[in-house]
Amino acid sequence: MSKYLISFPSAAMKVAADELEAVGQDARGVIRAAKEAGVYVFGGGIDESVPPVLVSADGSVAEGGYAWAPPLNGGFTVLELPSREEATAWAARLAEACGCDQELRVFGYDPES
Q1: Is 3.40.50.620 the CATH number for 2-47+71-107?
Q2: φ/ψ (deg, to 5) at 45
Q3: pLDDT of residue 113
Protein backbone atom coordinates (compact mmCIF):
# COMPACT_ATOMS: atom_id res chain seq x y z
CA MET A 1 0.00 0.00 0.00
CA SER A 2 1.09 3.55 -0.66
CA LYS A 3 0.63 6.68 1.36
CA TYR A 4 -1.05 9.63 -0.34
CA LEU A 5 -0.87 13.32 0.53
CA ILE A 6 -4.16 15.14 -0.02
CA SER A 7 -3.80 18.89 0.43
CA PHE A 8 -4.95 22.37 -0.47
CA PRO A 9 -3.43 25.86 -0.14
CA SER A 10 -5.31 28.35 2.02
CA ALA A 11 -6.17 30.56 -0.96
CA ALA A 12 -8.14 27.71 -2.56
CA MET A 13 -10.68 27.67 0.25
CA LYS A 14 -13.22 30.37 -0.48
CA VAL A 15 -15.84 29.75 2.19
CA ALA A 16 -18.05 32.40 3.72
CA ALA A 17 -17.44 33.00 7.42
CA ASP A 18 -20.91 31.77 8.32
CA GLU A 19 -20.20 28.46 6.53
CA LEU A 20 -16.82 27.70 8.16
CA GLU A 21 -18.28 25.74 11.06
CA ALA A 22 -20.30 23.48 8.74
CA VAL A 23 -17.30 22.97 6.45
CA GLY A 24 -15.17 22.03 9.46
CA GLN A 25 -17.77 19.54 10.63
CA ASP A 26 -18.02 18.01 7.15
CA ALA A 27 -14.24 17.73 6.82
CA ARG A 28 -13.92 16.15 10.27
CA GLY A 29 -16.64 13.70 9.23
CA VAL A 30 -14.51 12.55 6.30
CA ILE A 31 -11.49 12.22 8.60
CA ARG A 32 -13.57 10.16 11.06
CA ALA A 33 -14.62 7.91 8.16
CA ALA A 34 -10.97 7.50 7.11
CA LYS A 35 -10.06 6.54 10.69
CA GLU A 36 -12.94 4.05 10.85
CA ALA A 37 -11.77 2.57 7.53
CA GLY A 38 -8.26 2.20 8.96
CA VAL A 39 -6.62 4.33 6.21
CA TYR A 40 -5.87 7.52 8.18
CA VAL A 41 -2.17 8.19 8.88
CA PHE A 42 -2.12 11.84 9.97
CA GLY A 43 -3.32 15.28 9.01
CA GLY A 44 -3.60 18.87 10.03
CA GLY A 45 -2.96 22.35 8.81
CA ILE A 46 -0.19 24.89 8.84
CA ASP A 47 -0.59 27.41 11.68
CA GLU A 48 -0.36 30.56 9.61
CA SER A 49 -0.25 32.80 12.70
CA VAL A 50 3.32 31.60 13.35
CA PRO A 51 5.73 32.75 10.63
CA PRO A 52 8.29 30.26 9.36
CA VAL A 53 12.00 30.49 10.04
CA LEU A 54 14.81 29.10 7.92
CA VAL A 55 17.31 27.04 9.95
CA SER A 56 20.77 26.46 8.43
CA ALA A 57 23.08 23.52 9.03
CA ASP A 58 25.17 25.65 11.40
CA GLY A 59 22.08 26.31 13.54
CA SER A 60 21.59 29.92 12.47
CA VAL A 61 17.99 31.04 12.13
CA ALA A 62 16.58 33.57 9.65
CA GLU A 63 13.04 34.92 9.62
CA GLY A 64 10.87 33.62 6.78
CA GLY A 65 11.14 30.58 4.58
CA TYR A 66 12.78 30.22 1.21
CA ALA A 67 12.33 33.57 -0.54
CA TRP A 68 12.03 31.91 -3.96
CA ALA A 69 9.38 29.36 -2.99
CA PRO A 70 5.62 29.84 -2.75
CA PRO A 71 4.36 29.91 0.84
CA LEU A 72 3.47 26.60 2.44
CA ASN A 73 0.04 26.91 3.99
CA GLY A 74 -3.34 25.23 4.06
CA GLY A 75 -4.37 21.79 5.17
CA PHE A 76 -3.23 18.27 4.49
CA THR A 77 -4.11 14.66 5.16
CA VAL A 78 -2.05 11.53 4.62
CA LEU A 79 -3.93 8.29 3.99
CA GLU A 80 -2.58 4.80 3.35
CA LEU A 81 -4.46 3.20 0.49
CA PRO A 82 -4.09 0.28 -1.91
CA SER A 83 -4.52 2.32 -5.12
CA ARG A 84 -4.46 5.76 -6.66
CA GLU A 85 -8.11 5.26 -7.59
CA GLU A 86 -9.06 4.88 -3.92
CA ALA A 87 -6.89 7.91 -3.07
CA THR A 88 -8.74 9.90 -5.73
CA ALA A 89 -12.08 8.87 -4.21
CA TRP A 90 -10.97 10.05 -0.74
CA ALA A 91 -9.62 13.30 -2.22
CA ALA A 92 -13.02 13.87 -3.86
CA ARG A 93 -14.75 13.37 -0.50
CA LEU A 94 -12.43 15.93 1.10
CA ALA A 95 -12.92 18.33 -1.82
CA GLU A 96 -16.68 18.14 -1.36
CA ALA A 97 -16.43 18.62 2.41
CA CYS A 98 -13.96 21.52 2.20
CA GLY A 99 -15.55 23.19 -0.79
CA CYS A 100 -12.27 23.33 -2.73
CA ASP A 101 -10.20 21.14 -5.01
CA GLN A 102 -7.56 18.95 -3.39
CA GLU A 103 -4.08 18.15 -4.68
CA LEU A 104 -3.20 14.45 -4.62
CA ARG A 105 0.38 13.18 -4.44
CA VAL A 106 2.09 9.94 -3.53
CA PHE A 107 3.73 10.59 -0.17
CA GLY A 108 7.32 9.34 0.03
CA TYR A 109 7.12 7.68 3.42
CA ASP A 110 10.37 6.72 5.11
CA PRO A 111 9.81 3.38 6.86
CA GLU A 112 12.50 4.26 9.42
CA SER A 113 10.67 7.42 10.51
Answers
A1: no
A2: -145, 155
A3: 79
